[in-house]
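Chapter review: from sequence to fold.
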Amino acid sequence: MCADGGGTIAAVTRSDSFRLGLVNCTIAYNANGGVTWYSEPTAGMPPIIYNSILWNNGSFEVSPGCDAGAMVYYSDIMGGAGCEGFGGNITNNPLFKEIEDPVYGLQEGSDCIGAANPAVSPLTDIDGAYRDSNPDMGAYEFFDGGLGD
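The token string follows.
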């Protein structure tokens, strides 16, 4: 994650045995784009993205998008990238709360809270905090400080 700069995650697949997979990632505020992929005409596999947030990444979030083969599920994608028909996706502002520049967590009221697929989520977030049975989209699990967290 980069504030006011950065680039993109790019993958070129030349084999049907390789696929870019992103799970519970936050890719936000990169000037040069979010996730891009290119597949050799008959060999490569499109990326699969679960439980992630791709937001405000310059000219694209996912390129080419879901309408060209990218598989995106239970994620918050600014503008949709053609992924609206895939399971669990939203296009709402994730309501980032700046934790420490340039790292972003979620504010209370974010539609990303409790919206990830628990079958795919890792047990902990990027900081090692345990995710509950209704995990959040993105790299950070939301905690409001209450006993129920």
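Two observations follow directly from the output. The chain has one domain: 1-141. DSSP finds no helices and eleven strands in the chain.
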